[in-house]
Amino acid sequence: MRQLILDLMPEDAPSFDNFVVGGNSEALTGLAAWLAPDNREPALFLWGEPGAGKTHLLRASPGAYIDGAADPDLAGLGEETGVQAVDEVEALSESGQIALFNRFNRLRGKGGRLLVAARLPPLQLELREDLRTRLGSGLIYRVQPLTGVEQITALAAQAEARGLRLPPGALDYLLARAPRDMRSLAALLVALDRFSLEHKRAFTLPLLREVLQAPPKT
Amino acid sequence: MLLIKTPRDSLLAPLQSVSGIVEKRHTLPILSNVLLEKKDDRLTLLATDIEIQITTINDGAAGDGDGAITVAARKLQDILRSLPESAEVSLILDDKRLQVRAGKSKFSLQTLPAEDFPRMALSEGDLKKFTVTQKQFRHLLAQTQYSMATQDVRYYLNGLLLLVDGKELRAVATDGHRLAYASMPLDAELARQDLILPRKTVLELSRLLADSDEPLSVEMAPNQIRFQFGHTNLVSKLIDGKFPDYERVIPPSFKNLVSLNRSALLQSMVRAAILTNEKFRGVRLVLADGSLKIMAANAEQEEAQEELEVTYQGDPLDVGFNVGYLLDVLNNTSVENVEWGFNDANSSSLLMIPGNDRFKYVVMPMRI
């Protein structure tokens, strides 16, 4: 039998405050300026490897969010006039690409804006040519993944927000053995937190080892 | 110089009040000591572990002179306790030693200077004050304290949330598996403030507070709390941290509600608990029309089954719980009936007292 735990610590919603900037100050400044109400630029494109922080930035931005991997046809694309964020455009289906293309073409008239993210820059995306050129026509920023040191700082801050005191060397241990992207690392920290609460066990290196070997199901 | 001459109990009782917090081992040797201070006819005893400080003040002490000294708390307590109840005890300051005399018994104890004894600074500033009876506060603690975590890495769980809001005082404790909530009315109207009492402070208060209508006055400062009751004054530091938002884990509604006789349920649980697995202590509850079955099995394949007649008509439910968490709440409430609300076998359940919304106990199931 497994003890279930109370949901005491909801995960913080992504915000600009809890985004660890790392080498992305230029992208962040650019995004903030683009989000300003008086900005006239209709589209902004973010690209970078998985776990670099694109989704975090998209979700932190005000407006509607839609994930191309979860909704490849963009069925949930509304007729909103504000900021529309579209994540993982490389996963869009043919009809999803058409929907996005049409949305682009209507932007100027309606005054809406598009915030788009992908793993690759527009030039290398395998999408319809007309959509690809639209995506490449606006502002483009690369989101850089955090360095190892920055990841440790970010994880330590997340641990502290959860009231966890980590044993010395715990984060180095994690970084040396777990997938190196921030998304996986943050998810692992949550899993460790829940595991330690479920079993009422202290955060120790043996506990880290146990969780890393058999990640608990949530 | 004769510091004090007094019946045994008028020394032992205040000593026992303060010495509960004295740690057996401490890096600072003087913290094993208790401070005795005699001025005119007033005897003050003070003990501290740096986090908590307890003082008792008693008037009517007889002796030849004034003085202050610190002496091993536990040894003095052991000596006094083993003396006859009727003994007349004299404490005599003799150079750097403290003599304890009673009848033909004589003890000579090492001392450390009173000036070296650490005292907590009383914080000033924004104080929230209220007065309740000792019994009320003791009851509030009793309803919740068993849900505190013991040695969690999340230090804020090893304590009890105390919250004043308007004319209400609330206490909440949780270890992440279950949560106990209790509230009581206040006479004073106070702006909202919360703080986390350390576990040790909660246990000490429960031990010291009397089951009486005598007043307990509480002063909440941003980083300190002070309790004054009888001859005793307790000052405690607080746990620095953010207590989880308890309101979001209390289920607002449930699909199934069953009313149960508390003591019948308790007795069944106690019996079923005998054959639970020692490590997990899981019991399985099967709720169906008119019946609640409580089942347990241990690693040796031994089994227990209890059945209670209940007035229940609804969906059948099959859910597991740590029996310890159920025994805790049933043992710490003294009402005739309890109500238990469920949603499904994977969501939190809520134990309540019918007609009393001042108590709530949320407990998470075990996955069978």
**Structural class designation of chain A:** alpha/beta
Order of helices and strands of chain B: EHEEEEHEEEEHEEHEEEEHEEEEHEEEE
Contiguous helical run count of chain A: 8
How are helices and strands ordered from N to C of chain A?
Answer: EHEHEEHEHEHHHH
* Secondary structure: number of strands of chain A: 6
Overall 3D form of chain B: elongated
Characterization of the model:
The complex is a heterodimer of chains A (218) and B (368). With 218 residues, chain A is α/β, with parallel strands linked by helices. Chain A is built from eight helices and six strands. The longest helix of chain A is centred in the last third of the chain and has 18 residues, at 182-199. Chain A is elongated and about 60 Å long. Chain B is of the alpha+beta class and 368 residues long. Chain B is built from six helices and 23 strands. Chain B has helices at 8-19, 73-82, 134-144, 199-208, 262-273, 323-331; strands spanning 2-7, 33-39, 42-48, 52-59, 67-72, 88-94, 97-102, 105-113, 128-133, 159-174, 178-198, 215-221, 224-229, 232-237, 256-261, 282-288, 291-297, 303-309, 317-322, 337-342, 349-353, 356-363, 366-367. In chain B, helix 1 (8-19) packs antiparallel against helix 2 and helix 5 runs antiparallel to helix 6. The mean pLDDT of chain B is 94. Strand 1 (2-3) of chain A pairs antiparallel with strand 23 of chain B.
Lay out the secondary structure:
The complex is a heterodimer of chains A (218) and B (368).
Chain A: E1 2-3, H1 25-35, E2 43-47, H2 54-60, E3 64-67, E4 83-87, H3 94-110, E5 113-118, H4 129-135, E6 139-142, H5 148-161, H6 170-177, H7 182-199, H8 205-213
Parallel strand pairs in A: 2-5, 2-6, 3-4, 4-5
Helix pairs in contact in A: 5-7, 7-8
Chain B: E1 2-7, H1 8-19, E2 33-39, E3 42-48, E4 52-59, E5 67-72, H2 73-82, E6 88-94, E7 97-102, E8 105-113, E9 128-133, H3 134-144, E10 159-174, E11 178-198, H4 199-208, E12 215-221, E13 224-229, E14 232-237, E15 256-261, H5 262-273, E16 282-288, E17 291-297, E18 303-309, E19 317-322, H6 323-331, E20 337-342, E21 349-353, E22 356-363, E23 366-367
